[in-house]
Amino acid sequence: MKKISKMFAAAMVAAALFFAKSAQAQTVPANAFHFDIGAETGISQGTIKIASNYYVGATGRLSYGLNDRLALILTSGYYNFLGNHYHASMGMIPVKAGLKYSIWNGFYVSAEAGAAIELQNFAVFHDLDNGIPHTTKLLFSPGAGYAVKNWDFSFRYENFSGGDHYYSKNAVNYGLLGLRIAHGFGK
Q1: Using 50, 70 and 90 to split pLDDT, how confident is the model at 68?
Q2: How many CB atoms lie within 10 A of CB 72?
Q3: What CA–CA distance (Å, rounded) separates 40 from 42?
Q4: Cα(183)–Cα(102) distance, rounded to whole angstroms?
Q5: ∠148-103-96 over CA atoms, to 5°?
Q6: Exposed e or buried b for every residue in 88-105, given b needs 16+ CB within 10 A?
Q7: Mean pLDDT (whole number) for 166-179
Q8: 73, 97 in Cβ contact below 8 A?
Q9: Rounded Cα distance, 181 and 59, in Å
């Protein structure tokens, strides 16, 4: 798993360096809106690994520049934690808000928090209605990325917590390491 995490980080750095050589960096200008649509993929972390090793997803992000370095962001979309030989896939809708801070020449850091709505029971066996009942999780997501022209490349860790169930003595908490590639519209 550490090898895959390092591969995601290396891919992010390589993409950022490639685009840094070929284009000017983009920031969200003060008092302006920017919208992007992104494709996501990554690896699952924590308890969810019993049911899913990977996830894919699509998200939309609305940004509003507070100044030339700091922007408010609102992100939502759909994640699908891919099932394995024994367990069915699990869908989720994240809704999160946060801040994005431009640190240098298109590179930025971000932090988001919000809610993640599980769309079916956790760890369901194929063709059965079982598992731990679905719930809404608290999510927190620190990340880093690089934005250039209309493209945004980011890497983040996302943690899902809470939602105690009477089926288990502990909450089912888990996370993901994600890579997002997005195309933007507007300035």
Answers
A1: confident
A2: 15
A3: 7
A4: 18
A5: 80
A6: bbbbbebebebebebeee
A7: 73
A8: yes
A9: 10
Q: For residue 49, give both structure tokens.
A: 């690994």
C-beta separation of 12 from 155 below 8 A: yes
Asked whether the CA dihedral 19, 23, 25, 27 is positive or negative, the reply is negative
Q: Can you tell me whether residue 51 is helix, strand or coil?
A: coil
- Choose among 92, 14, 100, 108: nearest CA to 58: 92
Is 20 in a helix, a strand, or coil?
helix
Structure tokens at 172: 């089912």
**CA dist., res. 52 & res. 40, Å (int):** 16
For 21-36, the pLDDT digits (tens) are 444 445 677 788 989 9
Q: 25, 149 in Cβ contact below 8 A?
A: no
Q: Which residues contact 112 (CB under 8 A, 6 or more apart)?
A: 73, 75, 96, 97, 98, 99, 139, 140, 141, 143
Q: Is the pLDDT of residue 165 over 60?
A: no
